[in-house]
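ping. complex inputs:
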Amino acid sequence: MNGPFHSDSTLSSWGRIVRDRHLVARPRFGDELPGLLRRLSPDAPGLPIGLRRSYGDSILNPEGRVIDMTALDRIIAFDRKTGLMRAEAGLSLSQALQVLVPAGWFVPTTPGTRFATLGGAVANDVHGKNHHTAGTFGASVTRLSLLRTDGSTHELAPGDQLFHATVGGLGLTGVIAWVEFRASRIPSAHLDAEDTAFMRVEDYFDIAADRKTRFEHTMAWVDCSTGGAQLGRGIFSAANWSPHGDLATHTEQPRRKVPLDAPGFTLNALTVRAFNSVRHELKRMRYGPYRTHYEPFLYPLDGIADWNRLYGASGFYQYQCVLPPASARDGVVELLKAISASGQGSPLAVLKDFGSNPAAGLLSFPMEGTTLALDFRNQGERTLRLMADLDRIVADAGGRLYPAKDGRMPAAMFRAGFPKWQDFCAYLDPGLSSAFWRRVSA
Amino acid sequence: MDGSLGYTQPSVEVRATTASNRVVILGALSAIATATARIYAREGASLVLVARNAQRLDALAADLRARGAREVFVSAMDLEAEAGKAAVWLDTWVAQLGGLDHVHLIYGYLGSQPEASASPAELSRIITSNFSSAVQWCEAAANILRRQKHGALVAVSSVAGDRGRQSNYAYGAAKGGLALFVQGLAHSLAGTGARAVVVKPGFVDTPMTDGLKKGGAMWASADQIGHALRSAADKGGPIQYAPGKWRIIMSIIRAVPAFIFHKTKL
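pong. complex structure:
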């Protein structure tokens, strides 16, 4: 029958909007992969998946097969002198850091969660607060092994076209078996950080321009529930690795857990506004320099397991766009106005400037400009209409949306945002597909 | 607004500072064994990994070295077939490690009760894997520990060994027998300075149980069981449940009268 694939009727991504039946295989050893890939075909395509921190449908293949890579998490080699690490694709950044940090190394860049796999970091070409200095994760990948459903195995390096299709390729070019990447040196596990409050979003851009020349890590938290003169007030955080302090790693287990779905009203506009205001005041009081371990600075939400359940049983969307420098100022203001007017404001909105580093992949999301990311509790049509409005602003500004966060972008939006998508198609593995890909390529 | 230097307390992982242990893991390639071995690796222990597949053992050994293990040796063999030579093999590994602190017996075979009922070969395999061969390894390990008056044997049994149930009584009987055997070894080692412990996990989310409906309070991760095994090597009584709440659950299940129990499909 389904052999090593077993049925799971509630598989979902981080946004939890779609919970659907999948046939799941969870190999424990790399030698099991070829046999699993033989069961995939253009008629019954599959998809490799990791820790499922992508928000939408880029990691879903409803009624189809998925290969859960998370048990393939062995480190193959780590050179403490050069910082070169090779590991199976299911290794989490969190586990990698347990080995890297005590030896004075860190992953070259990291998303806001350490619960991402190496394979996922490559397939989404993830970025972090240090994009303007480090580029994306793919920029530090030196080699990777890719298995395709035609039975071929490819060891790829930068320069190979299939490599650049696989970086940011959403798991659609083959199954990544292992990844080798160059870690970056850290003098300690601590950061010297500094927070600056700004009362208008326009001020964000001036602060960002100044900080990015002096700081490795930058990002801003924005309150988009307030309108008028206070539109887009927020906190700008910037940090450099501190020369002071030890090389202590984080605690692997989250400290707190959300035991069940919050009722749907928990994060309505009112509570969101209250939450944001309180947070704003609290952080303003700490305005100035401080030293912090990397855990709370880089992974503020990882301390709470299953925080996505706070949005209630109907789940939530995330919307992350990037706008090019020329249109970023006006575009971000327009987006915040539309969000504020809708009353569907999100408790976590993040602004960050990307650097001009060249893209590592054909479908890499980051490009020079400003990125804005926010959550919306799923309120059905109403939420979808708001995001369609935001799409128009992003498209007019010449921007694009992040597939890893997306569960609804129309095909036209994807194609306009990723002009190399047709080049990418030449490298697709016909035995792999996702709900996302079927939508944007239809 | 003061610019005081606030400091956010890091949550620092506590690392064990015990002198590096010398550990043999029998059945090193299961999810539980991997989790257990990684805990030892982080402590800087030296390990001998024993299981059937040489290539997979090499992959695990490389992982454990990267994670901090001092030395890792692998020995590819069929533990059921080699059980008669357990004492010889253990002596070899003790020589490689330069001593012995902990032996973990983790291998086992769940099998299928309907198949075991129909096929003598399957029934025999379940008993050999989980009991007859396992006790040979346990006896040989205990003999070394008794001689050196130090160290611990930790054998993995199962809550399935606490009451015969229609769904898996062959596996349950073998694991239950193993538990009795190790309980006896613990008694025989009393006062020597060496210990024997049997650990009985409940439901564990591993590939062995894929296909069952998982999640919720009854299921533990392989990691949790790994920590229970690691801790059992240092302290605690001769029979430990993992997680501990299974001791209560199983005492209730054992107490249910047959006329009620027989109405269930457990």
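The radius of gyration of chain B is 20 Å.
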